[in-house]
Amino acid sequence: MSVVLAIDAGTTGVRTRAVFDDGTPSFSSYKEFPQYFPQPGWVEHDALEIWDAVHATLVEVIKKINIPIAAIGITNQRETILVWDSATSRPTSRAIVWQDRRTAEHCTQLAPHLDLVRSTTGLVLDPYFSGTKAAWLLKNTEIPTQSNLRIGTIDTWLVWKLTNGAIFVTDPTNASRTMLFDIRSLSWSSEMCELIGVPIASLSEVQPSSTRYGMTRDVAGVPDGIAISGIAGDQQAALFGQACTSIGSAKNTYGTGSFVLLNIGTTCPAPAEGMLTTVAWDLGDGKPVYALEGSIFVTGAAVQWLRDGLGIISKASDIGPLADSVPDSGGVFVVPAFTGLGSPWWDPYARGTIVGITRGTTRAHIARAVVDAMVYQTRDVIDAMTRSGSVELRELRVDGGASIMNSMLQRQANELQVPVLRPTDHETTALGAAYLAGLAVGVWANLDELSQMWTLDQQFDPGTQDGHHAQWLRAVGRSRHWAQPD
After folding, report:
1. Cα–Cα distances in Å, from 212 out to 169, 171, 284, 440?
2. Mean pLDDT lowest for which of 113-122, 261-270, 407-416?
3. Domain containing 68: what range?
């Protein structure tokens, strides 16, 4: 028996999971870390606190394992970025999180270069992506000398820490989210780096998503010499973990936000309206796989808001029963544009909106409207993908915390008019990281073997649409451009 450890460094917490080669039930350790909101629209993390959480969970899982560890895979929140000093391995400031909107004005200034951004990076001009965040850090914090300057996403930071500063690396899935990376040549773009204001020499080496990057070294409680051999951004890792390895297969992760990825094969297409083109994975065979992505900024975070901001629920798991206690939302629509709107609108100035409230509105109606927003936002993304004409969606595989809600998944199938499939193992992000790492060291032989490990929990076949999507779009229109500066 072999075991691979997957480090899943998410937005609000870290999970380390043991994944066994034969599908033996695994175990994991989870630890949250703080979120910082210094100004409206700003979101920050302390990278040292992230590392402490990774280290604690990693050590806890290692203590439970009685066989040699074959490899470590890493998956991470993608567009969060930090700057650190290679001489001290200490960040120069807090990391700027993917949800942060402070660089909206910089993105607006770059508008004349939109065609270049789209054709080179597959992205749109939005503060979601990490390039303008890096430029902000370089301008507004004290940085080390050029020779010691390191700029990286969370995967790069964790490999640096696990190897005691010996390895400075990322993979194409994370690099393709920076707005600094040419997704066709799979290399940093000197033109984009110069345009945005990020020194290309301070960026990490880009290697395939599945390869031997280096070995663990001098980390307390972690054996030396464990291969670190898999890296993927969280959403691409979930696509891989969901065994969406054929063209037209797709997944949606209902997490803090929701992210729909559709496998479009090894040919990078022209930009699609409202959609992102991203690297799905690179197995080092010269045939990188691409995906269309729709990025929805807030879904599960709206459930946290109901719990922590409004006190409508006492724990996140209350949302399903409360929402199901009413037959519909009573005409209430919640557009959770707390940090702007992502796909397909890309409006950093949108703000959260509740419309349709009457004297008969209850907390159950608002809870139902929040759940409905997950369904409608996903439909908006799939509709835009369909309009792009790239490939036809056959089915949608789902994961993430909200995927436990059967009624929500049934409504999702109704709105999309395709089957929605939930696997028995919901932690597909960690699985994807483990599979990438295991492929590189021979734990699994090929993609066919990995596909056979995917098993169905429940399938939701499409029924009748509820007929309220047009009203939802009206509510979205109310939320757009709300914070637009004069």
Report:
1. 11, 12, 11, 7
2. 261-270
3. 3-242+433-444
